Amino acid sequence: MKFTEKMSNKLNELLEKNYDAEKGYKQAAEKVENTQMKQFFTEQAQKRYDFGHELKTEIKNYGETPEKGGSATGTMHRTWMDIETAFSSNNEETILGEVQKGEKAAVEEYDEVIKDTTLPPTTQKILTNQRNSINSAWQSAKNFEAIVS
Questions:
Q1: How does pLDDT run across 84-134, given as a tens digit for each residue?
Q2: What is the model's pTM?
């Protein structure tokens, strides 16, 4: 497998995870009553949408094709799908717990790709910025949890 194909596969995996996270955040925004949390979830969904476009552009720069939908297998990031269980209870604390699990998994996945020493500097910078933003969202979700518990 050539380098560009290998790299685009890694980026496509992150892209799919961002699709999942965007959907999860949109669902969370619909379920919570707290206006600050609703705004936070809406903003995070938009960020994940924007991350997706950045990743698509980077994949195209490698001459490869970006994935079009959410993850079919959803292996590591299936935690975002667990949020549906939390939604059935409409419990803000439970939803925040699922958001934290999803973001923790996302940070770990980004870290795994970022540690690849063959990443071009542009890709490294994009992924590092996205990872830092996700880490910040994770911390914010922890802060919200302290408020609602």
A1: 655 566 678 888 888 888 899 999 999 999 999 989 999 999 999 999 999
A2: 0.87
Average pLDDT of the chain is 85
Report the Cα 135 to chain-centroid distance in Å. Answer: 10
DSSP 22-67: HHHHHHHHHH---HHHHHHHHHHHHHHHHHHHHHHHHHHHTT----
Mention every residue, 6+ apart, whose C-beta is less than 8 A from residue 49.
18, 22
Read off the tokens for 78. 């299936």
Whole-number pLDDT of residue 42? 97
Nearest to 133 by CA among 121, 144, 122, 125: 125
Identity (one letter) of the amino acid at 106? A
Rounded-to-integer distance, Cα 84 and Cα 35, Å = 20
77, 24 Cβ separation under 8 angstroms = no
Read off the amino acid at residue 47.
K
CA distances to 95, 110, 133 from 62, rounded to whole Å, are 37, 19, 24
Task: Give the separation between CA 2 and CA 9, rounded to whole angstroms.
Answer: 11
Cα 1 to Cα 107, 113, 121, distances in angstroms: 26, 17, 21
